[in-house]
Amino acid sequence: MDRMECESPAADAPTGPVIRALLAAASVLRDWERRYWSRRMLEEMGDDALRDLGISRGDALHEAAKPLWRP
């Protein structure tokens, strides 16, 4: 039996409170990472690209200045 066959499927994974808390924390960190990269992209976009999105330079800079935990 190879290694892949020995691993239990995700549905059988433990779901205790510690695991749920870790999964929730990982989800929050993923959200923060997405916000970081999308805000950096907004900050670096040219005026033409921002205009195509319907966003002013001021709005883009305002969004880019937000802390990660603010949606």
Q: What percentage of amino acids are in beta strands?
A: under 5%
Helical content class:
55-70%
Question: What's the gyration radius in Å?
Answer: 20 Å
Give unreliable regions as ranges. none
What can be said about the biggest beta sheet? none
The tally of beta strands, per DSSP, is 0
Using the alpha-carbon principal axes, give the shape: elongated
Order of helices and strands: HHHH
Mean pLDDT, to the nearest integer, reads 87
Q: What is the first-to-last residue Cα distance?
A: 47 Å
The chain-level structural class is mainly alpha
Total number of helices: 4
Any descriptors?
single chain; elongated; 71 residues
List the SSEs and their pairings:
Layout lengths: L2 H4 L10 H28 L2 H7 L3 H8 L7
Helix pairs in contact: 2-4
Describe this structure in words.
The protein is mainly alpha-helical and 71 residues long. The chain has a domain of 34 residues. Helices cover 66% and strands 0% of the residues. Helix 2 packs antiparallel against helix 4. The longest helix is centred in the middle third of the chain and has 28 residues. It is elongated and about 50 Å long. The mean pLDDT is 87.
Short description:
This protein is mainly α. The chain is built from four helices and no strands.
